[in-house]
């Protein structure tokens, strides 16, 4: 499986500022039966399909939905904090740091199960979030 197939782009449109936040996420790819699954444990976002392309499309939809839903409910920062992200800086210039994979393994039982029971591949990909 080539890593270019896992080059994800995520964007939340912000009509006021047009700013973006770039994050680097670990994406775990594995099969469950005949289903290809992509999982970003730092955001608890999954995508799935019959092949990697379907899984990528599904992941991109779920990623956008996570961003849009938490943004619309004003819970984006709260959710990221719950998931172990570090949020620093001033109100207008926040810095978001994704949890390291080693940290996620300690706190995320689903990720630990995947790593212990599935053949998997892990990629680190940069995503843009407005």
What key phrases describe this protein's structure?
two-stranded antiparallel ribbon, globular, 4 helices, alpha+beta, 130 residues, disordered N terminus
Report what the structure shows:
By secondary structure, this protein is an alpha+beta fold. It has one domain (3-129). The chain is built from 4 helices and 6 strands. The chain has helices at residues 52-72, 76-82, 101-107, 109-117, and strands spanning 21-32, 35-40, 45-49, 86-89, 94-97, 120-129. The radius of gyration is 15 Å and the shape is globular.
How many structural domains does the protein architecture include? 1
Oligomer: single chain
Biggest sheet: strand arrangement: 3-2-1-6
Mean pLDDT across the residues is 82
Stretches with pLDDT under 50, minimum 5 residues:
1-16
CA radius of gyration: 15 Å
Largest sheet: 4 strands, antiparallel
Into which percentage range does the β-strand content fall?
25-35%
Judging from the principal axes of the Cα atoms, what is the shape? Answer: globular
How many DSSP helices? Answer: 4
Helix fraction bin: 25-40%
Helix-strand makeup class: alpha+beta
């Amino acid at each position: 499986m080539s890593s270019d197939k896992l080059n994800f782009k995520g964007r939340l449109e912000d009509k006021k500022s047009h700013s973006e936040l770039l994050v680097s996420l670990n994406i775990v790819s594995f099969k469950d039966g005949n289903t290809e699954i992509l999982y970003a444990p730092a955001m608890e976002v999954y995508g799935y399909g019959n092949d990697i392309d379907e899984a990528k499309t599904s992941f991109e939809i779920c990623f956008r939905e996570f961003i849009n839903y938490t943004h619309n409910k004003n819970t984006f920062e709260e959710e990221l904090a719950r998931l172990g992200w570090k949020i620093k800086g001033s109100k207008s210039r926040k810095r978001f740091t994704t949890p390291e994979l080693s940290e996620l393994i300690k706190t995320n039982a689903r990720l630990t199960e995947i790593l212990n029971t599935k053949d998997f591949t892990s990629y680190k990909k940069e995503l843009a979030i407005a």
